[in-house]
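Possible regression after last week's pipeline update?

I re-ran a chain I had predicted before the update to compare outputs. Posting the input and the new output here so someone can diff against the archived version. Not blocking, just want to make sure nothing changed silently.
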Amino acid sequence: SDNPNILIENISIQTQPIQNISDIQKQIINHIKSRYFSEDYLQFLQLLEKIYNKELSKNKNLRGGRLEYLLFLLFTILENNSIVDDVIWNGKVGKCGLPTPAPGGVKGSPDLLIYLDDIILVIECTTIKPKSSQWSSEGSSVPDHIKIVEKDNKSKKVIGLYLAPIIHKRVSDAMISNLSDSKSELINLDIESFIQSISSLKSKKEMILYLLGYLK
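New output (post-update):
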């Protein structure tokens, strides 16, 4: 390029953490409503594609990692506001700030773990919309990840939270059924409703009551 300084500057802007909760909400909603990535993030990826000659703008793994990373930023703000105690994301940020998702599959790791008093919230999220694809990708791994966390934390109350752009009752019912031999419970929520609800919570007590409200 004739002006590499502009490229470096653009990349550094894109990798800055978003500190405002409403900005993150917009980023998440734009991300899940797009086919691959939101318009501004797509421009960033296309810039990197030119620099590194590597296909990124249709990368499904990166798409999933981007959602996890944005949710991690959202929960980090909640942690800073003492609404949750601790946030662990099992993915990572790599070269040029590109996120790599948590290791998937039955023996993988949960996407995020959120700690609130004696509760561990096991978050599994997906950008996938079709019912059959959600089931084949998430159907067995979500309950298995929750069971692994329960086994390692017998003194805690473990709650799974499955977040998807669309919740299909047959998928969520089947995942709940797969947890019938465990003490853990599973909440299934569409991403947009969830992020709008938690942005109005003012305390950890409100967050806990919000989650328990979904459990019978």
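Follow-up from reviewer: compared with the archived run. The beta strands are 86-89, 92-93, 99-100, 112-116, 119-125, 157-164, 185-190. Marking as no regression found.
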